[in-house]
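stage 2 :: seqdesign
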């Protein structure tokens, strides 16, 4: 349950509360219905009791008689479920429906008071009875009357059961409506989290550089914390970049001085010593260039964007002016509206290393194409050079490795290009086509602003 989604937790909690509420409603409504029915029956029993009291009269001899029994035929049918009994000291009258059954009455209530009680009835039934005591004046003095009217409780139970049976479909319908309302509430209530998720997706895709304050109040603190972390990370990267740049610039002069001393040693004929100094200087310079390249890559913003055609034209226009580039045929097919999520300077640096390598090994032609496919921009650089085996291609991507060891260079170009592309969320693929080398850059595409 700890890793369950918020929707599932809210849905389960809401369903549990809803079930408990509906059960409580069913019990409460049944209880209220039962009380209402008992009050209604009590009113009917009270009317019957009043009728019986009014029907008891005193004859000329002063003796009490029941002048007119209740006309309802149910009181004449044995064990009909409706009964009455009147006791006046030595005199007593009962409904024919009681037949030979005698109501087991408790102690009589005080005169002028009523009592609604439950009594055992004939044939193992339970009766709801209204028991009443009154004082009736007669010619021979006041007489105490006890009037008891009763009805079979099974009628109340049947009415309650029918009420509950009719109520259940309505409660079920109400439950489904409340569940639907709860689902809508959950969707609406959790919508801000979806908004936050989209904002984070925009951050990852480079469409935004911060979440911002345009979020609901409840998640605003979280958004501010994330933005603060992004600001701190950007500041730290910028500080690292400045430190690397300061280190590089600080080492340039001493390294140049060492190269000058190496040249002086070479002029004096101390070639081995000069070579040793130059080797150390070049090693230090490679490390400096490496750290500068890493700092440059790390400083690229997520919201960076680069125009593929413009970056390619910039690199090609420079290389075409070189003697090797001027001797080649260039075929370039790049749509003008391709935008990739990568810093323009980083893309230029990566393409510069790759196209320069193609110029070095091409015999007659270099082909550069680009296309948009499934949210990616694919930039392909092909030369018609000798190509290389697969094991050399794998070694080529390692830092400090060069195809041509006859010339100067650090061997960082292709590995740095690989780092630049990887940092932008893309891939760099090098394959031997059998008629030269093909290098493919796959970068995330962006809409043209």
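stage 2 :: out
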């Amino acid at each position: 349950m700890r890793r369950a989604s918020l929707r599932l937790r809210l849905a389960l909690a809401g369903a549990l509360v809803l079930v408990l509420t509906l059960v409580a409603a069913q019990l409460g409504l049944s209880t209220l219905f039962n009380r209402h029915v008992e009050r209604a029956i009590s009113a009917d029993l009270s009317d019957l009791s009043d009728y019986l009291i009014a029907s008891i009269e005193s004859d000329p001899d002063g003796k009490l008689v029941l002048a007119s029994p209740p006309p309802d035929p149910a009181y004449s049918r044995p064990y009909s479920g409706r009964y009455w009994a009147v006791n006046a000291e030595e005199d007593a009258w009962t409904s024919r429906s009681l037949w030979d059954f005698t109501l087991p009455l408790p102690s009589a209530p005080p005169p002028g008071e009523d009592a609604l009680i439950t009594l055992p009835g004939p044939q193992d039934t339970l009766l709801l009875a209204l028991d009443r005591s009154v004082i009736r004046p007669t010619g021979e003095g006041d007489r105490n009357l006890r009037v008891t009217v009763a009805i079979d409780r099974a009628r109340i139970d049947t009415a309650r059961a029918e009420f509950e049976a009719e109520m259940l479909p309505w409660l079920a319908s109400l439950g489904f409506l409340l569940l639907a309302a709860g689902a809508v509430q959950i969707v609406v209530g959790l919508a801000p989290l979806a908004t936050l998720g989209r904002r984070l997706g925009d951050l990852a895709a480079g469409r935004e550089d911060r979440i911002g304050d345009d979020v609901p109040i409840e998640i605003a603190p979280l958004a501010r914390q994330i933005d603060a972390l992004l600001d701190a990370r950007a500041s730290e990267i910028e500080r690292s970049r400045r430190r690397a740049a300061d280190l590089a610039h600080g080492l340039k002069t001493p390294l140049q001085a060492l190269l000058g001393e190496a040249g002086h040693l070479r002029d004096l004929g101390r070639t081995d010593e000069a070579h040793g100094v130059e080797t150390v200087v070049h090693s230090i310079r490679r490390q400096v260039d490496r750290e500068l390249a890493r700092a440059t890559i790390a400083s690229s913003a997520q919201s960076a964007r680069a125009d593929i055609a413009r970056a390619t034209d910039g690199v090609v226009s420079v290389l075409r002016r070189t003697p090797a580039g001027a001797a080649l045929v260039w075929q370039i097919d790049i749509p003008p509206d391709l935008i990739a999520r990568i810093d323009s300077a980083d893309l230029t640096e990566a393409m510069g290393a790759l196209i320069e390598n193609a110029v070095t090994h091409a015999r007659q032609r270099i082909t550069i194409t680009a296309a948009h496919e499934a949210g990616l921009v694919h930039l392909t650089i092909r030369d018609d050079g000798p190509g290389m085996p697969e094991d050399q291609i794998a070694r080529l991507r390692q830092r400090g490795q060069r195809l041509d060891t006859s010339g100067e260079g650090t061997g960082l170009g292709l590995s740095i290009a690989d780092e630049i592309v990887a940092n932008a969320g893309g891939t760099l693929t090098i394959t031997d086509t059998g008629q030269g080398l093909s290098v493919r850059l796959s970068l995330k595409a962006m809409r043209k602003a």
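stage 3 :: structure notes
- The longest strand covers residues 125-138.
- The chain has three domains: 11-159, 228-298, 306-446.
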